[in-house]
Amino acid sequence: MKSALLALGMALGLAVAGCNSLVGNGTYELVENSTVKDATVVEDAPAALTDGVSPQDGGRGDATVSGHDAEAGGGEGADADAAPVCTPPSGTCTPPGGCQQPDGVYVCDGGAVVCVSAAVQNGTSCGGADSGMVCSDGGCVSCNAGADCSDPNACVTKAYACNTGAPVCAFVSNVPEGTACGGDAGFVCNDAGGCVACSAGSDCSVATSCAKQTIECSSGAAVCTPAGNKPDGTSCGTGLYCYGGTCSACTLNQACTPANPCHQGTVSACTGGVATCTDTGLAVTAGTSCGTNEVCSASGSCASCTAGLSCTPSSNACHIGSTSCATGASTCTDTGQSVPNGTSCGSGMACDNGSCFACTSGTACTPANA
Fold first, then answer.
1. Are β-strands 104-109 and 92-93 bridged in parallel, bridged antiparallel, or unpaired?
2. How far is CA 25 from CA 36, 47, 60, 120, 231, in A?
3. List of residues 6+ apart from 147 with CB closer than 8 A
4. pLDDT of 244-290, one tens digit each?
5. Is 342 helix (H, G, I), strand (E, B) or coil?
6. Which of 268, 282, 295, 297 lies 20 to 30 angstroms, CA to CA, from 211?
């Protein structure tokens, strides 16, 4: 009898204990007809998945607890410490962040129900309009597409591209030909996007030409282009000089003969290679020839004068003289030679061996052998 009573009491205790089921973090809740039922509680899952589950423990429990009858007295049975089993709900879901496909599914991860899906294509915009963010292997990362990343000394423009999910400094276009590059003077960009040497403005003229030429780099290459004429007086060959773009023997400021040949002149211009002689008003040296049998006087006028004519020197009538124009006027120069003896050298005078003596022709005289 005593044994029967003990068995009955144990049965009643088990019946009472069977009215409780384990929920969440170990608390118990009365479940229908005192029978432990399987309960699924999914964190952040649709409300329908947690109907009939106590909101205790913050709505967590992302797992299914099945087949565990709790013992009376707070669940101190053999399975009281067993971990809950996770059972993900059915249906599709959309992961947050915008970098995964919208047709995701629920799975268990470390005992928690999570929504997973395939990543969208890398480079897809995320984070909202003008956020400067793109998807990269399922994550939303910063990437400012189109931002300039060019080297200021290079000949190409570049900008960030984000289609791979990461910022890549990509080629956009070549800069205009002739743009300075390289960071130093004397370099420009060519049509292929290369930085080449080109010293704009440097002289490239032909030495024997009077046309000036300089290097021009606007095309991206060194081109020798016309740049006017070389300065007047620039040498263009041996004894030749440039004047007005013409190479000739004319030399500025060189001595020349103006309209008055007995005045000094100077070359004041060489237009077209032809010298323009300007009269300075200064007389040339007296005796300078100014024409046939003409010489310049000391006053700067041109006078007749024939040099070399026979004349009688004023200093000795019995000597032979010769005209000279060295002074700018005709003068008789004594040559020192005697005229023939007997040449009259004055009234009643005759020359004898270069001297003038009194001698009257036809008068009586005594011969030497008398």
1. antiparallel
2. 16, 19, 8, 37, 103
3. 159, 160
4. 888 888 888 889 999 999 999 999 987 777 888 999 999 999 999 99
5. coil
6. 268
Residues 6+ apart with CB under 8 A from 119: 99, 100, 101, 135, 137, 138
* Full DSSP string of 69-111: PPPHHHH-STTTTPPPBP-PPSSEE--TTS-B-S-EEEEEETT
pTM metric for this prediction? 0.41
More confident site: 330 or 84: 330
CB-based contacts of 276, cutoff 8 Å, min separation 6: 267, 268, 269, 270
Dig out the tokens for 267 from the structure. Answer: 């070359």
Q: Are 158 and 172 in contact (CB under 8 A)?
A: yes
Runs of H (alpha helix) within the chain = 2-17, 72-75
Single out the residue of 49, 75, 52, 81 nearest to residue 62, CA to CA. Answer: 49
**Amino acid code (one letter) for 108:** C
Backbone angles phi, psi at 32, to 5 degrees: -45, 135
Question: Are 23 and 62 spatial neighbours (Cβ–Cβ below 8 Å)?
Answer: no
DSSP string, 126-154: -SSTT--EEEETTEEEE--TT-B---TTS
Residue-wise pLDDT for 161-172, tens only, equals: 999 999 999 999
Query: Quick one: 227 exposed, middle or buried, by C-beta within 10 A (0-12, 13-18, 19+)?
Result: middle
Nearest to 284 by CA among 269, 301, 268, 271: 301
Predicted pLDDT of residue 20: 31
Average pLDDT across the chain, whole number: 78
Integer Cα distance of 264 and 288 in angstroms: 11
Residue 135 CA to residue 122 CA, distance in Å, equals 5
Q: Round to whole Å and give the CA distance between 293 and 228.
A: 49
Q: Provide the token pair at 55.
A: 């909101």
Kindly state the tokens that stand for 86: 């996770």
How many angstroms separate the Cα of 294 from the Cα of each of 68, 208, 303, 323?
Answer: 153, 42, 5, 13
CB-CB neighbours of 4 under 10 Å: 8
